[in-house]
Amino acid sequence: MxxxxxxxxxxxxxxxxxxxxKMAGMRIDGALDTVKFIANQRITxxxxxxxxxxxxxNFQPEAGGTHVNLQVEYTVxxxxxxxxAEAVIIRQNDHEAEVLLANLxxxxxx
Length: 110
Description:
Elements: E1 3-9, E2 15-23, E3 26-38, E4 42-47, E5 53-62, E6 65-70, E7 73-74, H1 78-81, H2 83-109
Antiparallel strand pairs: 1-2, 2-3, 3-4, 4-5, 5-6, 5-7
């Protein structure tokens, strides 16, 4: 994520915000909303513009801590990027998700 702006709270719990992301050197703007929130169990966010995506975060107690499971579902704008770039973008996004989870783990354990 390059930039997050216009962060707001939703009446049903959760947040909404606009985001800017660079993919293959292209700037992509989008907006994300929390669509499901179950305290201490699950948060699901969805973006319908820019790069359409759904991110279900699941939290489960585990050995005195919390196990976090994130499944990222997104659609690469292939007509814009081209089929050859798609595989590279998917690998890059998978790496970024792993870094995000490692950073979250480090912060929570600090």
